Amino acid sequence: MPAFLIDNLKILNEVIEMHWVWIQNTFAKKQIQPRNKSQKPPMRIRTLLNQCHYLKSFVYENEKLQQHDGSMSVIVDIRPRKNSQPVCSGCHQRGGVYDHLRERLFEFIPIWGMTVFFCYTMRRVNCQACGVKVEAVPWCDGKNQLTKAYQLFLARWARKLSWKEVAESFQTSWDKVYRSVQYVVEFGLKNRGLDGINAIGVDEIQYAKGHQYLTVVYQLDQGRKRLLFVGKERTVKTFLGFFHQLTPDQIDSIQYVCSDMWKPYLKVIKKKLPHALHILDRFHIVAKLNKAVDEVRREEVKQLESEGYEPILKKSKYCFLKNEANLTVHQEERLSELLKYDLKSVRAYLLKESFQAYWQYQSPYWAERYLKLWCNRAMRSRLEPMKKFVKTVRRHQPLMNNWFKAKKAYSSGTVEGLNRKINLVTRKAYGYRSYDVLKIALFHTMGSLPEPEMTHKFC
Ligand SMILES: [Zn+2]
């Protein structure tokens, strides 16, 4: 073997030797240590709570299982951190401890079908500004027994289910669900912004089996449609209530207002929004026309009956009222049969159909001309309800024309959709006992209100 090769082999052996020693040393040092149990705390309820509902100046401890009100409950004690001073509920400044009150339970979000309570002994603060006051705690407001997190949890579910269903799902009462929704809505109303509203709509809603009215105001802006106001009855005073909560600048920013033909509303709009373009809403005009057509039909049914004719008009209401596109096959056949007769109802129906052309115009001028022609024709129809409708139209003609001036921007679909949604809420079996409850429910579903902030999303 050549000498240079023998030298290289020697070097190679030395290198391998060195590596081997290094490998042995390393593994000897890195032997796996036996697990020290005291290093990692076991998973406890408080570990979970600190993850999802951390309290800055308080500590969770001592979780226990206990019977409470006939069901198994998890009770978690809370105590203040060492040397932390209580916060005054009056001025939110810290102060010295005056004394301790009795232990109280606060209901938190249930887990695995068990109720959860925080148990805490409230302190009283010796506040320099307010005197002796109960402390404020971050998980709860005032005298409430439900924690904020639980209230927000229930209120969020109350958007998806009826209040009764929420109460049943989480083994709580209807009343607690209601109070939770109320808390969230009140927070939202206090913290919402009312700047930059460009278009509003005002509407009247029947409730309580149609005996009473509500006044509602919506924001109708593109991309921002929400309920702004709910007031009892439909008087001038009610609607003025909406303007009382706005600043003069906020009122000035309103450029468009949609309404129906209810006089008190027209009066308030004239007074409060003289600068805005007032549009009579198409949805309400169509509804009035439909009502007139139906009146003609009902009178004719009675008349035919008393004169002893066949009841050809029976069950024909929706053949005349529905849009042609929405008729069922049966209704369509029925309608084409009815149109062969010389009936008042048919004349009213044809007038209603020809009124639709009015909405197709682009120019306010031509729309107005068409409306005048249509009104003359309707007046010659000798149908009293239709003549009454014409009188209404003539009275409000300039406002109707504003719809074209606004370039049809606030279509009937928007107002109709909101109107339908409101009716759905009012009719839904939430078990509303009063106007106040209904108002809370309406704002909760349609107010787009801001919610109290939580670091963790519980649902
Ligand atoms: Zn104070």
Polypeptide structure, described:
The structure is a single chain. With 459 residues, the protein is α/β, with parallel strands linked by helices. It folds into four domains: 86 residues, no CATH class; 40 residues, no CATH class; 87 residues, Nucleotidyltransferase, domain 5; 124 residues. The protein has 17 helices and eleven strands. Strands 1, 2, 3, 4, 5 and 6 form a six-stranded mixed β-sheet that branches. Strands 9-8-7-10-11 form a five-stranded mixed β-sheet, sandwiched between helices. Helix 4 packs across helix 5. It starts with a helix and ends in a 13-residue tail after the last helix. The site of zinc ion (ZN) has 8 residues, from loops.
Describe the secondary-structure layout:
Elements: H1 3-29, H2 45-52, E1 58-68, E2 71-80, E3 87-88, E4 96-111, E5 114-127, E6 131-136, H3 148-160, H4 163-169, H5 174-191, E7 199-207, E8 212-221, E9 224-232, H6 236-244, H7 248-252, E10 256-259, H8 263-272, E11 277-280, H9 282-306, H10 317-321, H11 329-338, H12 344-360, H13 364-379, H14 384-395, H15 397-405, H16 412-427, H17 435-446
Parallel strand pairs: 2-5, 7-10, 10-11
Antiparallel strand pairs: 1-2, 3-6, 4-5, 5-6, 7-8, 8-9
Helix pairs in contact: 3-5, 4-5, 5-17, 6-8, 9-12, 9-14, 12-13, 13-14, 16-17
The protein binds zinc ion (ZN).
